[in-house]
Amino acid sequence: MPLLRMNATDQGLHLHHTGADALSQIAEVSQRTGGPAIVMIHGFKYDPHADRHCPQRKLFGAQGANWPHALGFDQSKAGEGLGIALGWSARGPLRQVHRRATRLGLTLAELVGTLKANHPARPVHVIAHSLGSEIALAALEHLPPRAVDRILLLTGASFCGFADDMLATPAGRTAEVFNITSRENDVFDLAFETLVRAQRQGDRALGQGLSRPNALNIQLDCDRSLAALAQFGTPITTPKRQICHWSSYTRPGAMSFYAKLLRQPEAYCFRELQGALPDDQDPRWSRLGLGCPNVDICHVATESLAAVTLRLRHKATLFKRAFSKRDPDEPAFLTSACIRSDATTPS
């Protein structure tokens, strides 16, 4: 199977199982595989160096959500392309992990540069969830135009202002960006905005939408969006939860849609999708039935940290639960025993 498992650190890229230099392996494999290269990046709470939280097994492997399979990388077909399952240490205090993700943009840029150097005509795409979106965006300032073709940001934990800056770079202007959002993620967006210091006062998480001409916002819990996607032959089920950080890839139909975006760009033309999908997004908290902007909690993200210190203490339990909640659909929080049990349960 044309899939490379590797991990990114500040010291570079290393193969997951052996720790060997990954760039030389990319150069070797890239020259003898056709089709697109798709880099998959996980988000918060995973760590490839901790077995219990290893993304290579729980998200990119057969025991978990198996992104490679969902994106078409185990069919043994000609032109299947090259899949790269990119792990990184995403556990620890949220602000610290966010800074680490920003730094790893350079490492991702080195990976993309190696792919392009060895197979210039190959399309290179990136799909990233949560804080992995920060890595995907941060790489753009280190790359030349047309280095990355399509970027999928799944309920991304990054700021709109930072995304705007990165999409204004030469590589950012030539990439097509699909910003996958959901009001299911509002609690997590607020936690991110509150616990990570934005460079710009009042900056908001990607869930509030991007306004760049080459960025398309797709709200996955919007009935109008789901109806439009169904017309393109990509039905996605309606959400089951009011709050969920992982439904952007666990919802039935979602990963199939992403596979088509990355493998059939002509059939899923950016401009045609842009014309078919709603221009606006539902307001924050609408999924919870809260009348924003008059609800008290909605002001937290826009007030200065000094002014809301006491209130943040009161909200801390909510934020901690949001990021530590054991969701049965999220492999990052499953123990090995849970996964083995699921694997032996008849369908």
TrEMBL record:
InterPro entries membership: AB_hydrolase_fold (IPR029058)
Protein name per its UniProtKB record: Uncharacterized protein
Organism whose genome encodes this protein: Roseobacter cerasinus
